[in-house]
Amino acid sequence: MIKITGLSRKLPQGKMVLENIHGQLEPGAFVAVVGSSGSGKSTLLRCLALRERWSAGEYRFDGQDANKLGFFGKLRLKRKIAYLEQKALLYEKKTALKNVLIGAIGQVSWFRRMTGMVRNDDYMGAMETLENVGLIDRAHRQAEKLSGGERQRVAVARAIAHGAELLLADEPVSGLDPHSQEDIMAMLKKLTREQGTTIVVALHRLELAEKFADQIWGLEEGRLVLDVRGRRLTLAEKNRIT
Ligand SMILES: Nc1ncnc2c1ncn2[C@@H]1O[C@H](COP(=O)(O)OP(=O)(O)OP(=O)(O)O)[C@@H](O)[C@H]1O
């Protein structure tokens, strides 16, 4: 379980980008973070991904206090967390399968990483994750020849092959057509159900959050003003965060 208590992020100029955020993420939860532009969604995701430092508060991952971890402890924790960019960053000339394998290779020994040797298990694991994200028929296609939605699927498959327990995705569907947006959200939801991955997505489209997420966090000027589970937002709630 992930628990954040009083998480705040103050910029050097003094501006509070996140202010006293409290929240809890159960294993396998699918959480959408919504809020108007500049409300702090990306900052929150980057803090949860340990890519940005918070200035106050506590972040516990399975009981471990991230503030108290040393260099190697933090590295181990980072291995459990995957962060997806808006536009999936892939090795363009490599196939979807190779891109996933590179993720899996991050989990194997130094020697095999250096030599690029791939075991049959790694290969089978990578093919299985590609199947899980509905991309088995694109396994041998070069990344540069994949559509935006397919690229996001490869990035997700790579994160799963890498053993991520927490997947943070910043606007993973922006720039995709509405049909692909729904497909990606459905695929993410399936992963939370079938693999138990905890997924947090920052989203602009509220209707996607309502349709697919189990829980909605609403941010307003760096404060968490909504934490809603299992129901749609009221009109007043929608107005507050848009
Ligand atoms: N390093 C920084 N330096 C200056 N301002 C920053 C920095 N990081 C964040 N901000 C500011 O903090 C606020 C929150 O930014 P953030 O990117 O987290 O918002 P967001 O909700 O993800 O916005 P968007 O939906 O437009 O991506 C914004 O006003 C942004 O300009």
UniProtKB/TrEMBL annotation:
Keywords: ATP-binding, Nucleotide-binding, Transport
Domain of life: Bacteria
Molecular function (Gene Ontology), one example: ATP hydrolysis activity
ABC transporter domain location: 2-241
Nucleotide-binding keyword on record: yes
PANTHER family registered for this protein in UniProt: AMINO ACID IMPORT ATP-BINDING PROTEIN
Protein name per UniProt: ATP-binding cassette domain-containing protein
Taxonomic classification: Bacteria, Bacillati, Bacillota, Bacilli, Bacillales
